[in-house]
Each structure stands twice: as structure tokens, then as C-alpha cells.
Write a structure and sequence with these properties.
Elements lengths: L4 E7 L4 E9 L6 E9 L1 H4 L7 H23 L8 E7 L3 H18 L3 E5 H13 L5 E6 L4 E8 L2 E7 L5 H11 L6 H9 L24 H18 L4 H29 L8 E4 L6 H13 L4 E2 L3 H4 L4 H12 L26 E2 L2 E2 L2
Parallel strand pairs: 1-4, 4-5, 6-9, 9-10
Antiparallel strand pairs: 1-2, 2-3, 6-7, 7-8, 11-12
Helix pairs in contact: 2-3, 4-11, 5-6, 5-7, 5-8, 6-8, 7-8, 8-9
The structure holds 5'-O-[(R)-(carboxyoxy)(hydroxy)phosphoryl]adenosine (KG4) and zinc ion (ZN).
5'-O-[(R)-(carboxyoxy)(hydroxy)phosphoryl]adenosine (KG4) binds next to helix 5 and helix 6.
């Protein structure tokens, strides 16, 4: 497309209310003019997970202000926009609907094209926003709600090679933190403890490593950790600071090994397609041990490793605006007429995944 495109992106599918403006000029790299993210961690802190009704209400209350802030920070008025991209799923449907209703309202009032974006496509296309990566590439999306390997072939073509059959790794980190009385979100807390622990003291299971393919499972790991903790309590009446560190280190080592082995398999599966890189996204990608393991696998396979900056790996609206630009560039027609979807697998050919995580349906 040979014209400048400036899109507003809106994201409200989980527990982050986000709006952003992204601009693409012909022949230049895309620019994130603004990216506002209002988290809801404090609102859900007492409940041990995201409460859909609280999330939906908070989105409804904050979205207007968030959009205004994103436009102001970008120095852009509604009249300067070439379109609006909004997350239409998958996710907690109350939140998704809050964003979609606002986007529809603005688009109708201003006569702007509206693009319904799959949240997972937003994550999956981020390496093209940050680094201009060419298709095809392999992506591991690993967060509190998602865990899947995707071969990204085009702006609207994704092949799912495998993923979790139960919990997402971030969810497992959060549950582990809870079992060990560490603060939420659990990932950084568990990583901090693990840094001073012995990963060899507790040998936790490596689920599904003996099974072919790229599917993973993390819920048994949390049960194993609970048993190990309870055995210590039964033996000594409690757990010491060092016990806790060792439990965290053992848990993290198990997650790291499963992700690394399955990543090597995913890379081997797509080797004949010569992927341009192996990219990670999602909050769990912040973990240094996991990241180092994934990078080593990519290097071993001779494929460049890419981890976008964390603020673009976690939920944000810049990725949604960018996915909207990708849609327009790929000739995907905007439409006011679409459904909002709690479940929306990127790869329609892949078998449906069962279960629903604490952060909503897993696609
Ligand atoms: O992508 P994200 O911000 O939100 C969604 O889940 O959509 O990811 C949050 C998840 C949480 O489960 C959090 O515990 C995990 O990412 N996380 C980590 C680390 N930092 C965040 N997990 C492991 N190690 C970390 N350093
Ligand atoms: Zn996400």
C-alpha cells in the first residue's frame, strides 16, 4: 500500500485496558506514536485471578480516557486516523465487548474503517512491528493465558504446531507462587527465588516429553510441587527459605526444559520452510532462564532468536493497531459487521483445545 496509514488500536480482552496509535509510512519502518496500558492487577489481587465482571466494568470505565490519552500522547486527532483496529477475541467476552462497542461507536461517528483483530494475531505479528521480520517465522507465545507454537506465514495465515493442553506456563508460575506464599504475579517472584536455589534438589516431572509433537502440559508440575512442599511440611513442620528457593529452582528448570525441548521440535518441523527467526512473546518471555534456554535452541538450529521489548511482548494495543495495518496492507476488507468471540483459534484447521484458564478461554 503506497499511502501513510495511521491507526488507533484498542485492546481490552483480559486485564489490561490499552489504546495506541501506530503509523506506517510507505518505505519506512512503522512507528508507535503512543501506547497506553492501564493494568488491573490491584483490582483482582484479592481474588487470586482475573474476575471477568470486575475486568469488564474496569474496561468500560477506563477505555474512553485511555483512548483520549493515546491520541493526545500521539498528537493525533480522530480526523487524522485512517482506521481503528480492535481486539474482537479471544478473551473474556465482557471486556472484549467493551472495546468493540467503543471502537464501533467511534468508527460509525467518524466514518472510519474498522478492523476486527484476533488478539493472538496481534502477539504473533509483533516481530514485524519491532524488527520488520519477513514471513515465515516461528513464534512461541507464552504468557499467563496462552502457550502455543505458531508458524506465521502471512498476516492472516498461521499454522499452530502445538501448545498447552491444560495450564499456560504463566498460570503455573502464578499457582506455584501462591502455593509458596509468594506475591502475584508469580513469575518474577518465582524467578527471583529460583536464582538462589538448587535446580537439582527436587526433580519435577517433564510432562509430555515422551510424546511426539509440540503439545505441552503444565498442570501436573504444580501438583508435583504441592506434594514436595507438603512432604517437607510433614517432615519438618514447615519449609525453610532455602527449601522455597530450591522448590522454585526445580520448578523453573522443569518448565525451561519442556519449553526448550518442544521448541527444538517445532523448529525441526518447520526447518524445510527456512523460517526467518524464532520469536517469543508473552509475559513469561521475561524470564531470563527460560529465554536463555530458548535462545540456545534457536542458535543450535541456526535460526536467529528474537524477543521483542517486554512492553510489546505483554498485552498492549500497539500490536492491535499494527495487526490492523497488516490487514489493510494484505487487502483484508474492514467491516462493521463481525462477531466478538471468547474463543477464536488463529489456525482454524488445528484441533480445538479444551479447558479455560484463569485469564479466560485459551485459543
Ligand atoms: O503476557 P502477560 O503480561 O499477560 C497475559 O497473560 O496475557 O503475562 C503475564 C504472565 C503472568 O502469569 C506472570 O506470572 C508471567 O507472565 N511472568 C513471568 C515472568 N514475568 C511475568 N513468568 C515467569 N518469569 C517471569 N520473570
Ligand atoms: Zn495476550
Amino acid at each position: 500500500m503506497d499511502r501513510t496509514l495511521t491507526l488507533l488500536g484498542i485492546e481490552s480482552s483480559c486485564d489490561d485496558t490499552a489504546a495506541a496509535v501506530v503509523r506506517m509510512r510507505p518505505g519506512a519502518r512503522p512507528k508507535i506514536l503512543s501506547s497506553e496500558v492501564l493494568g488491573q492487577t490491584a483490582l483482582h489481587a484479592d481474588f487470586g485471578g482475573v474476575v471477568p465482571e470486575i475486568a469488564a466494568r474496569a474496561h468500560a470505565e477506563r477505555l474512553d480516557g485511555c483512548v483520549e490519552a493515546a491520541l493526545a500522547a500521539a498528537g493525533v486527532a480522530l480526523g487524522d486516523l485512517d482506521g481503528i483496529a480492535v481486539t474482537a477475541g479471544p478473551g473474556l467476552i465482557g471486556g472484549v465487548l467493551s472495546g468493540v462497542m467503543l471502537a464501533r461507536g467511534i468508527a460509525a461517528a467518524r466514518g472510519l474503517p474498522l478492523l476486527a483483530v484476533n488478539h493472538l494475531a496481534g502477539h504473533a505479528l509483533t516481530p514485524r512491528l519491532t524488527d520488520g521480520v519477513a514471513f515465515p517465522y516461528l513464534m512461541l507465545l507464552v504468557s499467563g493465558g496462552h502457550c502455543q507454537f505458531l508458524l506465521v506465514e502471512a498476516a492472516d495465515r498461521f499454522r499452530r504446531l502445538g501448545g498447552t493442553i491444560d495450564d499456560a506456563p504463566g498460570e503455573a508460575f502464578d499457582k506455584t507462587a501462591k502455593l509458596l506464599a509468594l506475591p502475584q504475579p508469580g513469575g518474577p517472584a518465582v524467578e527471583g527465588e529460583a536464582a538462589q536455589g538448587d535446580p537439582r534438589r527436587f526433580k519435577f516431572p517433564r510432562p509430555l516429553l515422551d510424546r511426539d509433537g509440540c503439545d505441552m502440559s503444565f498442570s501436573g508440575l504444580k501438583t508435583a510441587l504441592l506434594r514436595a512442599r507438603d512432604a517437607l511440611i510433614a517432615e519438618k513442620g514447615g519449609i525453610t527459605v532455602q527449601d522455597r528457593r530450591d522448590l522454585c529452582a526445580g520448578f523453573q528448570a522443569a518448565v525451561a526444559e519442556v519449553l526448550a525441548v518442544k521448541s527444538a521440535r517445532a523448529l525441526a518441523q518447520v526447518a524445510d520452510l527456512s523460517p526467518t527467526c524464532f520469536a517469543v512473546a508473552g509475559g513469561v518471555a521475561a524470564n531470563q532462564t527460560l529465554r536463555a534456554g530458548l535462545e540456545a535452541v534457536a542458535t543450535g538450529a541456526g535460526v536467529p532468536f528474537l524477543a521483542p521489548p517486554l512492553r510489546l511482548c505483554t498485552d498492549n494495543a500497539a500490536m492491535i493497531a499494527w495487526a490492523g495495518i497488516e490487514h489493510l496492507q494484505a487487502g483484508i476488507a474492514p467491516s462493521m459487521d463481525f462477531v466478538s468471540r471468547p474463543r477464536w483459534p488463529l489456525d482454524q484447521m488445528a484441533p480445538a483445545q479444551l479447558g479455560s484458564g484463569k485469564k479466560g478461554a485459551k485459543a
